[in-house]
Amino acid sequence: MMARLWKAPWLLLVILVALVAFSYQEKRKTFVSVHEVNAIEVSVPGTLKYVTETYNKESGDLYNFRIIRILKIEKQITDHMELHIRVEMQRTTCFKTETSTCDVQRGELYKQIQCYFSVYAIPEFERYKILKKNCTDS
């Protein structure tokens, strides 16, 4: 009789440990793939537009920047899709209030930066979120 009383708490403990281990596995990203993609892939143009608009909104600069060169784009698929983007951007002649495509600055106002963006993307629904951003003068 006493042996049965000890088995019940051990069984409950084993079940609890199994549940904790299972829930931990559910929270981890399931790695599927990472590969380089080009700028014409379906998910890329909308993402590039989003990062440019977001950078310009958040920047303290009076002028808009635009992407002048794409250095590298990687698509990472886990339990969601992320795009890892490296680009060169230059300051344009357009103020932030302007939305047209403008020439890049020359002379004193010339500025070029290199940026890395990690973007959570659901392009089918035009949903994006910048997870990481790092921009430096080039």
CATH architecture: Roll
Amount of beta strand: 35-45%
Query: What is the H-and-E element order?
Result: HEHEEEE
Looking at the structure, the CATH topology is: Nuclear Transport Factor 2, Chain: A
How are the strands ordered across the major sheet? Answer: 1-2-3-4-5
Q: Assign an overall shape.
A: elongated
Q: Give the CATH class.
A: Alpha Beta
Distance between the termini: 77 Å
Q: Structural class of the helices, strands and pairings?
A: alpha+beta
* Helical coverage, percent range: 25-40%
Q: What is the averaged pLDDT score?
A: 85
Enumerate the spans where pLDDT stays under 50 for 5 or more consecutive residues: none
Count the E strands: 5
Evaluate the radius of gyration. Answer: 24 Å
| Distinct helical segment count | 2
Biggest sheet descriptor: 5 strands, antiparallel
For the record, the count of structural domains works out to: 1
Descriptive overview:
The protein is an alpha+beta fold and 138 residues long. The protein has a single domain (33-137), classed as Nuclear Transport Factor 2, Chain: A (Roll). 30% of the residues lie in helices and 41% in strands. The protein has helices at residues 2-27, 44-58, and strands at residues 33-36, 63-77, 81-95, 112-122, 127-137. Strands 1-2-3-4-5 form a five-stranded antiparallel sheet. A hairpin with a 4-residue loop joins strand 4 and strand 5. The longest helix is centred in the first third of the chain and has 26 residues, at 2-27. GO terms for molecular function: cysteine-type endopeptidase inhibitor activity. Residues 1-25 form the signal peptide.
